[in-house]
Design goal:
Helix content of chain A: 25-40%
Order of helices and strands of chain A: EHEHEHEHEHHEEEEHEEH
Number of helices of chain A: 8
Largest interface: A-B, 23 and 23 residues
Oligomer: homodimer
CATH topology of chain A: Rossmann fold
Strand content of chain A: 15-25%
CATH superfamily of chain A: NAD(P)-binding Rossmann-like Domain
Structural class of chain A: alpha/beta
CATH class of chain A: Alpha Beta
Shape of chain A: globular
């Protein structure tokens, strides 16, 4: 059994992901949560939980990653938390999780990024969105230079629609919607397919099965 | 004559710095400003000006650095500009200036940082200051990995007092005040002394002459 640490487990993608991992045959989840009050959802799925805060030290996150085979970072400040959290969670929280992963001797890291985090995207974003794009840009850059077995997933516009299991997935795709449930499935498929190591791709709703789409990357 | 590009020339440290550079025997300043309306102060000093915005592309900054021997980054969002600008100027503006410096083939880069930009300082900062410390942390980290001849200056609490020319300067010093005018002198002394290449140091008001303090680093 491969054990997957999910940073941001209590988010919407995180909850789908832990659910799928717990249903899989060869993986189990360790849900990283900010407080014990968030534990019951994951305990009902039979998943392990660990309390660690992305705004605390690298060491406290590294401790959570001690018995782990792979780390998924799907935490996000969300639009509503204010610009402070953009730096502290989307950038600094991500980098601390990357450093904690290295420090725990874990190699595999899957990052849930934003749809387009290129330098051009920062320039083109409007003034209120640009700091978020920049924070995600630097988190992705840090990961690419971290000597980890990374995969960076760039989802389209996230919805709470039920997943279809069908996507359009490639280094560059046209911007479109995708259900959070399908992003969780893409993460799972990426963890199961080592072809995704060292790769990054955009993903939106489409017509290809997720397994096939991930295999063809 | 060595020509120094000053990014953030219209700031308080920047204006002192351009003044000192223009008075020196072996350097001349090129003041990087956001708009032509800021030019007159520098033209009166006989300094060249170039209009370039840190929120624009790397290329536009690289063009400003074309005929340059060294770049000084002393731009800052300032406390009053809001958290958006922390990411866009203190982090992204700094990184774009670093990339522009490389792209223009310039090697020497002097960064005006914050007093303490270590990971510990981010953790210890209060919630409203932490994003600024984090932004400066990542800008400094980016510079250290950029293969440039860098110097990172970490000033204490900046004041508008007249400079004394006397400082306490070392990798670690006790936090204290320092006039902006003396920081400008420390930048000039660093540009004149290659012993500062690959070094970073804190600096506050003290009892040693700036030239001597920089020489002993």
């Amino acid at each position: 059994m491969k054990k997957i640490l999910v940073a941001g487990a209590n988010g919407q993608i995180g909850k789908h992901l832990v659910t799928f991992i717990q249903k899989s045959d060869n993986m189990e989840a360790k849900a990283m949560i900010r407080s014990k009050e968030q534990a019951s959802f994951f305990e009902e799925l039979g998943a392990e939980t660990v309390v660690a805060d992305l705004e605390e030290s690298v060491d406290s996150i590294a401790k959570a990653a001690e018995d782990i085979d792979a780390v998924v970072f799907t935490a996000g400040s969300g639009g509503h938390t204010g610009k402070d959290k953009t730096v502290m969670v989307d950038l600094d929280g991500a980098v601390k999780t990357i450093e904690a992963t290295k420090s725990a001797g874990v190699k595999r890291f899957v990052m849930i990024s934003s749809f387009d985090t290129t330098r051009e995207a920062i320039l083109e974003a409007n003034a209120s969105f640009a700091p978020y794009v920049a924070a995600k840009h630097y988190a992705d850059e840090w990961l690419k230079r971290a000597d980890l077995d990374y995969t960076i997933i760039h989802p389209g516009l996230l919805t709470n629609d039920e997943g279809t299991g069908q996507v359009n997935l490639a280094p560059k795709v046209e911007r479109d919607e995708i259900p959070r449930e399908d992003i969780a499935r893409v993460i799972l498929a990426s963890l199961e397919n080592d072809k995704t190591i060292g790769k990054e791709f955009q993903v939106v709703g489409g017509t290809k099965s997720i397994k096939e789409a991930v295999e063809s990357i």
